[in-house]
């Protein structure tokens, strides 16, 4: 929309407060602030929701792989053959044997539910999620049949256990005696403590070499599952379809979507719902722009009539009032982007400050899954939010602009 010199001058004057027009300027200012808050709220919420999904995906998939080939009854006797078939499947980048079993952990009279996870030594030492999150000790100390384990930081806190202490793992499925089954108890030295950032993992995981897990659970040369990673996590079902057919009847292939279906579906639904609800804030702001422009048109009726008698075209008046409304929306959108990105940059400090002032724990990891507030701005989503604000602002200018353009100068100036 190209404006002539006089149209730009008039639009500029209408954007600034004139004598007796303080209330109109106040309404326009409120409209600008409302657009700013709406755009900022949308950017912040959508970025945080994207951050949630990305963090959960990275950490869950980082520990569990893109899919698992799980034996019936939690046992995979011919795991070596399945492992060869998995590695030979096109699109599979890695496959490793795995054991997972919920048991009990004890230290100095304290008992906690734990999830024993047996992994190959190579996988333990090279797993990016574990290796980057070690807060004490060294994963390199874990060796086959070495009697050493790595545990989550929350589990260490709950049990009061420190590096070098002995953690007793209790396996209820122990040895049978004439007096019943005696639970099997094995002590392991804590060689490393990690903090993945997902509360459920940090409060339960006990990682050990797969050979130690087999001995603890009396499995022999058996594993629970084969963990598989592929070249594309989003195409994992199609990639592993041939493997699923080969192991049918012996095992079942479960991908990351199926393992965490309820969690990711809930995030997707909440993301859409939050976008729709928060878009209403922008819509309310647009109605403020509409009302301020209507008041401006009524206040400037005499000026509009004079402009028409001086030769101003209807199209020129439409452009002037559209420019005023779109400028308010654009300034609000730009301010909202600045406010949104500023909040995202200092998000954890803001949460900590509010917690300090209110004395309330706003970010309980046991509820939120993650230990810190995540954020991942999506340029495409931000562009859509900004475009939506501009389109709404433009639509709000149509009625006042055409109302001004249809002003009859004869009727207005008849008694002047």
UniProtKB/TrEMBL annotation:
UniProt keyword annotation of Transmembrane present: yes
GO terms classed as biological process: lipoprotein localization to outer membrane; lipoprotein transport
Signal peptide: none
Sorted UniProt keywords: Cell membrane, Lipoprotein, Membrane, Transmembrane, Transmembrane helix, Transport
Coiled coil: none
Residue ranges annotated for the MacB-like periplasmic core domain, each copy included: 30-239
GO CC list: plasma membrane protein complex
Entry membrane topology: Multi-pass membrane protein
Residues passing through the membrane, by range: 21-49, 272-297, 317-346, 382-402
Stored Pfam families: FtsX, MacB_PCD
Keyword Ribonucleoprotein: no
Domain ABC3 transporter permease C-terminal, chain residue ranges per copy: 276-409
Subcellular location: Cell membrane
NCBIfam families, A to Z: lolCE
Family: Belongs to the ABC-4 integral membrane protein family. LolC/E subfamily.
Name listed for the protein in its UniProt record: Lipoprotein-releasing ABC transporter permease subunit
Biological source species: Sphingobium indicum
């Amino acid at each position: 929309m190209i404006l002539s010199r006089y149209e730009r001058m008039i639009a500029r004057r209408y954007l600034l407060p004139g004598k007796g027009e303080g209330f109109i300027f106040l309404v326009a200012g409120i409209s600008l602030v409302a657009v700013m808050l709406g755009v900022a709220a949308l950017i912040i919420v959508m970025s945080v929701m994207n951050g949630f999904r990305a963090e959960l995906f990275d950490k869950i998939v980082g520990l569990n792989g893109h899919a698992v080939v799980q034996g019936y009854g939690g046992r995979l006797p011919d795991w070596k053959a399945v492992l060869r078939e998995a590695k030979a499947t096109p699109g599979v980048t890695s496959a490793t044997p795995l054991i997972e079993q919920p048991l009990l952990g004890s230290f100095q009279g304290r008992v906690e539910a734990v999830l024993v996870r047996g992994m190959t030594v190579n996988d333990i030492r090279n797993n990016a999620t574990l290796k980057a999150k070690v807060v004490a000790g060294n994963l390199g100390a874990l060796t086959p049949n070495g009697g050493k384990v790595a545990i989550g930081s929350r589990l260490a806190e709950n049990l009061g256990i420190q590096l070098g202490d002995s953690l007793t793992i209790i396996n209820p499925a122990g040895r049978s005696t004439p007096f019943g089954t005696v639970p099997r108890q094995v002590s392991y030295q804590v060689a490393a403590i990690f903090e993945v950032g997902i509360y459920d993992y940090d409060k339960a995981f006990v990682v050990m070499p797969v050979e130690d897990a087999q001995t603890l659970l009396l499995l022999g040369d058996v594993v629970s599952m084969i963990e598989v990673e592929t070249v594309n996590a989003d195409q994992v079902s199609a990639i592993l379809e041939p493997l699923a057919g080969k192991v049918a009847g012996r095992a079942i292939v479960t991908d990351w979507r199926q393992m965490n279906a309820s969690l990711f579906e809930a995030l997707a639904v909440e993301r859409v719902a939050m976008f729709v609800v928060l878009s209403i804030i922008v819509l309310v702001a647009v109605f403020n722009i509409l009302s301020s422009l209507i008041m401006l048109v009524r206040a400037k009726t005499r000026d509009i009539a004079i402009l028409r008698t001086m030769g101003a075209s209807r199209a020129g008046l439409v452009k002037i009032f559209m420019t005023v409304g779109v400028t308010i929306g654009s300034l609000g959108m730009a301010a909202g982007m600045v406010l949104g990105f500023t909040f995202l940059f200092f998000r954890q400090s803001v949460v900590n400050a509010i917690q300090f002032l209110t004395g309330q724990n706003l970010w309980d990891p046991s509820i939120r899954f993650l230990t810190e507030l995540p954020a991942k701005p999506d340029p495409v989503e931000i562009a859509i939010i900004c475009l939506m604000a501009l389109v709404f602002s433009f639509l709000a200018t149509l009625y006042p602009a055409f109302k001004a353009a249809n002003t009859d100068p004869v009727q207005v100036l008849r008694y002047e």
